[in-house]
Amino acid sequence: MTSTPSRLMGKSVGQFAEFLRHMRARWFLYVPIFAVWGFAYTRLFVDPTPRVPVLFNWTPSLPYSVAVMHYGQHDLQRGDYIVFAFAGEARTDYPGLSGQPFFKIVRGLPGDTVTVSGRTVAINGQVVGTAKTHAFDRRPLEPIAPTVIPPGHYYVQGTSADSFDSRYRASGLVRAEQVLGTVVPLF
Predict the structure, then answer these.
(1) H or E segment at 9?
(2) How far is C-alpha 81 from the chain's CA centre?
(3) What per-residue confidence (pLDDT) applies to 48?
(4) What strand order describes the sheet that includes 120-123?
(5) How many CA atoms lie within 13 A of 107 on its CB side?
(6) DSSP letter at 44?
(7) In what order do the strands lie in the sheet containing 101-108?
(8) Which residues in the chain land under pLDDT 70?
(9) What pLDDT score does 168 carry?
């Protein structure tokens, strides 16, 4: 007579073997699923840097869904669309943000003055947006501190009121070495 744990172990092994036979017979269904999962895992946890010249934006931070990226350092101008690797203070509360590519518009250049009145942010006296009080998970958000943008830094912003960008201290200014490249929106 076999003991109950041995019987359960044998049953589990049999069920697993049956599952493997099922997968082998339907491999064409499982290969794409594992490929997508592998790509997503790699993208999120190993190397978030985009590797193809065509980008797809599914967030409301910019009105464009498809764009072409030109990798490398460029002389950035106000109004340029860029992709940069996130390196703001928010990484301590949200470790998954570290190095994630963000797609934004350059609104402030080195030497520009950033002022904050209440939660309204202005660059060189021109209002560029209002900082929200809380993130989606209800954590408080502080607006960026008034400053003069130092050399090698940029103020970046999305077009949505919900965009997480330089309006917030936890995101901050973007350093030139964080910039992965400029972007040409297609549609």
Answers:
(1) helix 4-25
(2) 15
(3) 59
(4) 126-130, 120-123, 113-117, 147-148
(5) 24
(6) I
(7) 54-56, 66-71, 179-185, 81-85, 101-108, 153-157, 174-175
(8) 1-10, 39-52
(9) 97
Contact 169, 146 (CB under 8 A): no
Q: Distance (Å, rounded) from C-alpha 90 to C-alpha 144?
A: 13
Q: What does the pLDDT read at residue 19?
A: 86
Asked if 146 contacts 115 with a C-beta cutoff of 8 angstroms, the reply is yes
Q: What is the b/e burial string over 116-132, where b = at least 16 CB atoms within 10 angstroms of the residue's CB?
A: beeeebbbeeeebbebb
Are the beta carbons of 125 and 108 closer than 8 angstroms? no
Separation of CA 95 from chain center? 11
- Res 33: pLDDT: 84
What is the distance of C-alpha 177 from the center of its chain?
A: 17
